[in-house]
Write a structure and sequence with these properties.
The protein is α+β, with helices and mostly antiparallel strands. The chain has two domains: 116 residues, no CATH class; 35 residues, no CATH class. It has five helices and four strands. It has a two-stranded antiparallel ribbon. The termini are close together.
Length: 155
């Protein structure tokens, strides 16, 4: 698997998110990447760098210490973080929409669902059964593209 193909796929996913009004998801992915991952490391301090005022036993004890260090994600890890975000946000949202459609269509065909904002003051959203039709094909299509993308990156 090449780092170049993983980087290319990662950049393509971020571009796709931005072009589909999901800038906030792309921003969160980039913030996670900047934070990096934590790695536990043991370092050894040479005896000649130890304080001359320390006793020999304290020098021996203090020469090996464990610290946490920040490490950059690999290209493959960046790609997997982006794919995971797309699966969680995009596919998760479509699956929720599918569940709503199933509930509305089978139980109450004339019902509407309203999502009303709390303190944000943003516009409320209303869904009717006709607007929620056929998300299963979109779920399968996106899952297929993500599988193909993973296969291409692993080549």
């Amino acid at each position: 698997m090449s780092d170049a193909s993983a980087t290319e796929a990662y950049n393509a996913l971020l571009l796709w998110l931005r072009s589909n009004n999901l800038e906030w998801v792309a921003t969160q992915i980039e913030e996670e990447i900047i934070l990096g991952k934590i790695k536990s490391e043991r370092i050894h301090i040479p005896a000649d760098l130890a304080s001359p005022y320390s006793s020999k036993t304290s020098v021996e004890k203090s020469t090996r210490s464990e610290f946490l260090a920040r490490v950059d994600y690999t290209a493959q890890e960046k790609f997997e973080i982006a794919v995971g975000a797309v699966e969680a946000v995009v596919l998760g949202g479509i699956k929720i929409q599918d569940a709503l459609a199933s509930t509305l269509i089978t139980e109450h065909a004339d019902i509407q669902i309203h999502f009303v904002p709390g303190e944000t003051g943003e516009t409320a959203h209303m869904y009717q059964p006709i607007e929620l039709a056929d998300p299963k094909s979109r779920i399968e299509e996106i899952e297929h593209y993500l599988r193909e993308l993973r296969i291409d990156v692993k080549k």
